[in-house]
Design a protein that fits this description.
80 residues, 3 helices, elongated
Length: 80
């Protein structure tokens, strides 16, 4: 036997029916805190700062990759 039940209710009604807590005040507090932190760190998302951070990461990553390749090549040469 197959039975289908369709429930038509709002998310608020479903939350209450299932006994879930109302976290809307907590959500508002978290959003406000995120806004404050973003506004405090707006200078970090300036295009010049982003490029500076990306370029420094890129150079470090390139150097690490080069060393990894050199280690792999020297290991392959030693096995021959």
């Amino acid at each position: 036997m197959k039975m289908t039940v369709e429930v038509d209710c709002t998310p608020e009604e479903a939350r209450r029916f299932l006994g879930l807590p109302d976290v809307s005040a907590l959500n508002e507090h978290m959003v406000d805190e995120m806004k404050k932190r973003m506004e405090a760190n707006m200078s970090m998302i300036a295009p010049e700062e982003l490029m500076k951070n990306w370029m420094s990461f890129g150079q470090g990553a390139q150097e690490h990759f080069r060393k990894l390749m050199e280690a792999g090549l020297s290991g392959a040469a030693a096995r021959k």
